[in-house]
Amino acid sequence: MVTLAVTSTHRLELRRDVSHRPASVRAFRWMRVVSAFVLSGSMLSTSLLSAQRVDSSATRVGTSAAPASRPWYERLSLRGYAQFRYNRLLETNDALVCSQCDRSIGDNGGFFLRRGRLILSGNVHPRVSIYVQPDYAADAAGALHYLQLRDAYADVALDAQRIHRVRIGQSKVPYGFENLQSSSNRIPLDRHDALNSALPNERDMGVLYYWAPRIAADRFRMLVDSGLKGSGDYGVLGVGLYNGQTANRPEANNSSHAVARLTYPWRLASGQIVEASVQAYTGRFVLPSVSSGVGVDPEYRDERTAVSFVWYAQPFGLVAEYTRGIGPQYVAATNRVESQPLAGGFVQAMYRWRRDGQVIQPFVRLHQYDGGKKVELDARHYEVHESEVGVEWLPNPAFELTIQYTSSDRLFEDAKSIGNRQRGRFLRLQAQINY
């Protein structure tokens, strides 16, 4: 009944806005309806069929079910990683900052623990697996190193082969390749603004359905385990409903967001793997913070579509993503937050060189974004043009060193900083420990 109620609410919303929406936006209706019915059927099946999958930031945990006689501590594993950074070398403008990227960039930045993750995962039943990931490098109220939840979910399989599964809890929302790719695998130090502004922290609370035939699931796993920087197993098809206010924030309205993603990793005759994806989401968003005197609406349309392409580094690689949509954005001319179009993306080239057990990967990335960032003050308006060049060195599986030179041109404005445009360059260092 909950699913039907949500579906009903979504249909009312679509009727209410239909006069203002283009035909491409109205196409989101199918996604809400399909998601609701798939999830209602999955809920009814959960008591009979349970699952086993987990990602490595989203790879399946295992290929065989753990015997029920094994004690719990033999069915769960503990692993993680930590990233230690310094961003101030060769800096030309200390007023250039990026809170979405790294809070230690710019004025008063110093040595910084960007991420500190502990991952508890495993099979608690032949068809049920869990994944819990806190971050001990989170900041709050101006202080650092708070323990904050990132992931906490269970995968419930609907068949013995684990082709169909339902994910319940707080997890990554299947929107964008780089959003789904673990930060421990990504070569550039931060995610690009365009797709990550849709889902800061990449996660939310909800229920998702994933479908992945065995051949695709095996390739998703191989792309992570082999060091080819895959995103993990988020299915060939992923659909679902989630709150929409982003991770670790309470729901703020009476409607859910809906998301759908379709992807496939093809293996060419040469052995080269190529992955292409399309994805979209839709919902209504409530602004979390607004300056005094700024005009706002109770909630805003929050809708995007995106395409992704990955030519995995064997040894040359290419990654590209592009998104378009509509969302809340500060407009200086009216001193209001209004629903505005947004667009942006990136292209990245890299080369994977292996020798004597070491891996060296030089890379270059260009990205741009023009739009709002909904979770920031007044849904700040951004215009971003940025280039990055660097190299990642893995002397052994437990240690990685990344050096990245960034050239950035950013306009970011809210009611307190209209016309704030900053340009600059700086050299960044990161040491990553895997354990």
Ordered list of secondary-structure elements with their pairings:
Layout (H helix, E strand, L loop, with lengths): L1 H16 L5 H4 L1 H19 L25 H4 E14 L22 E14 L2 E13 L2 E15 L6 E9 L4 H4 L12 H4 L6 E9 L2 H12 L11 E6 L14 E11 L5 E13 L14 E12 L4 E16 L4 E16 L1 E3 L2 E15 L8 E16 L2 E15 L7 E14 L1
Antiparallel strand pairs: 1-2, 1-17, 2-3, 3-4, 4-5, 5-6, 6-7, 7-8, 8-9, 9-10, 10-11, 11-12, 12-14, 13-14, 14-15, 15-16, 16-17
Q: What does this 3D model show about the protein?
A:
By secondary structure, the protein is mainly beta. It has a single domain, classed as Porin, CATH 2.40.160. 14% of the residues lie in helices and 49% in strands. A 16-stranded antiparallel barrel has the order 1-2-3-4-5-6-7-8-9-10-11-12-14-15-16-17. The longest helix is centred in the N-terminal third of the chain and has 19 residues. The chain is globular.
